[in-house]
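ok trying again, last paste got cut off:
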Amino acid sequence: MIKNALTVENLTKIYLDSKTKKENKALSNLSFEVKQGEVFGLLGPNGAGKTTFLSILGGTVTKTSGRVNVWGFNLDQNPRQVKASLGIVPQEVNLDAFFSPHKLLELQAGLYGIKKKDRITDLILKMVALEDKANAYSRSLSGGMKRRLLIAKAMVHQPPVLILDEPAQNLDVDAQIQLYKLIQDIHQKQNCAVLMVSHDLHRVMKESTQVLCLYHHICCEGLPESILKDDQFNDLF
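nice, full thing came through this time. structure:
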């Protein structure tokens, strides 16, 4: 039976201006589901609330109201289990320049409490085609390699849900093609749910099986081909 990898119900986040006391609603009653093994595209222009949503999932922003479940764990009641069920690939490249890919993955696995005998560092490096760079300084890697290493870091604990925040940002065309081929391979081999968060219309439509268009609230949701015919979608893009 296919289970929900991610369930979001009436998620709302309101920021309060400390000077004017005016409320700014970044997210308003956001509700959707991501199935196990699904590639789900979360599409929205800059300022639509995508970063706020990811920050709530990652535990760095507190929601105002609503409910979030990840792999059966409630965000409020089981925050540690939620974090352990997520692999988040950030938009920014946050790698220690003086550590090698192998060392970075070993450290990341240690942070998740994975015993040395259970770590799959070499397998992950091979999966992201960085086995030849395993012991090189991270600062010597190309932009595309650094992006692949970020994905590798997110996969050390083999999470059932992989979240990609603008995964191909600042990459040239060839590096983008290689990166999305890697994402497809990981999705097929691990059968994890992939949530692709971006404002790249073409790529989200091409890679996703289901698309949600966000602008503080849900504007439209459905199959990629049906979304393109939606008036609210065309107003945004």
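cool. The CA atoms of residues 173 and 179 lie 10 Å apart. DSSP finds nine helices and ten strands in the chain.
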